[in-house]
Amino acid sequence: MFVGVSREASECRLYAEHCADKARLQSDPQLRQCFLEMQRRWLSLACSCEFAERLEFLSAVEERNKEARVKDAEVGR
């Protein structure tokens, strides 16, 4: 079963955390908003990476299941 989080998604979340930290340190509201927007984008990218990985995993599982069904059908003839 798929349980891991990729290195890419983890790095994106780390960059998002850095952006949040920088936003907290900003006195300029526009810069703070820019960093918060960057944080949101990094988090969105992390979610996209995780989704792609789950899709890849499920596709591989389905392919193995398909191969097993074909093998079973051949044995059953």
Approximate shape: rod-shaped
Q: Helix-strand pattern, N to C? A: HH
What composes the largest sheet?
none
What Rg is obtained from the alpha carbons, in whole angstroms? 21 Å
Mean pLDDT, nearest integer?
A: 89
Measured as a percent range, the helix fraction is over 70%
End-to-end Cα distance: 32 Å
Uncertain spans, ≥5 residues at pLDDT below 50? Answer: none
- The tally of helices reads 2
Query: Could you tell me the number of beta strands?
Result: 0
Determine the strand fraction and express it as a percent band.
under 5%
- How does the helix and strand content classify structurally? mainly alpha
| Tally of discrete structural domains | 1
Can you characterise this structure?
Helix 1 (7-25) packs antiparallel against helix 2 (29-76). With 77 residues, this protein is mainly alpha-helical. The chain has one domain (7-76). The protein is built from two helices and no strands. The chain has helices spanning 7-25, 29-76.
Question: Short summary of the structure?
Answer:
Helices cover 87% and strands 0% of the residues. The protein is mainly alpha-helical and 77 residues long.
